[in-house]
# Entry
Amino acid sequence: MVNLLDFDREGLASFFVELGEKPFRATQVMKWIHQQAVVDFDAYTNLSKALRQQLKEIAYVSQPQVQMSQTAQDGTRKWLLQLDSDNSIEMVLIPEEGRNTLCVSSQVGCALDCCFCATAQQGFNRNLSTAEIIAQLWLAEHILTQEGDQADNAKRAISNVVMMGMGEPLTNLNNVIKAMNVMMDDFAYGLSWRHITLSTTGIVPALARLKETCPVNIAISLHAPNDALRNKLVPINQKYPLAELMSACRAYAKGNPQRRITFEYIMLKDINDSPAHARALVKLLQGFPAKVNLIPFNPFPDTRYICSPRETIDHFRDILVQAKLLTVTRKTRGGDIDAACGQLAGKVRDRTQRQFKLFNKEIVNETI
Ligand code: SAH
# Structure
């Protein structure tokens, strides 16, 4: 039995061709599943009765179960989604004037061990399947549509997707690309690449592949302007140091003058927030089509970090702005329900797997 949510259009067309059907069945079925949210094959009236019957025997459409949902004072919503008996993930909706942004998870936990991130403290269990990734958008669309909510300027309820939930999307690249293909497909959600942003610590070889196959917007979790500090905060830097990362970013931006790369920089008191750090950041990003997002640190239980005070953040920002770097301080959303950046926890069965996987070459190569 196959879950039809696991296919992008190309995959679904091959699936139908193998059944002796025409490839256009894929677009018909995608519309039913993703646009009409109809998952009962009997209702697919533009398919023959025989094909409907055959589908029932070999295929299904299934999404994670909503275990819990919470709404923050600022309207941010968070859902805990159960994938199987051992694993849950979190997904977050950030409603803003005229747009609804969905923050999507790509893994159960995370293997990268960034010390300021709550997801990292959970350890890592497994990659999400394509179905589990796209089902988050399916579910959010479905829930909001049922509530009668739609973004002002869009037919669909979710206008933007950020791959910024739990996990490192570029170490689950095949599934993430297939899911993003569905997000951008006109027979599914029809989002343009401008409305999808993938956030990554910077898995260098995967960036090249992403550009080739599915060049959405990227945001790099930079957090430090030099290797010594970044090695500590984002340990994957030991494998892909800044010089390599920056040249991969340059290659990603090349050929598209409209493309800006976002650099995320978390503000940690007395760790990476001095004027000297700001000046070093200016030097690193000079001449680059960059946008800097300063992210106030969001605390979680047992963390040893503290968020930089407002004046420190403002001063840091002013140094960047004076150097003509486009810079915004990200507004923290949903902090009262632990839905803010770096606070997503979910439920992970095996905390030990990270120890085996981190820096194991396979962590990258197995998925690219
Ligand atoms: N692994 C990817 C996707 C996660 S996105 C990545 O690292 O980019 C989540 C974003 O929130 C990243 O920029 C991450 O560095 C940031 N973040 C993590 N923990 C945080 C915290 N406690 N407070 C604020 N931002 C945090």
About this structure: Residues 125 and 210 are 24 Å apart (CA to CA).
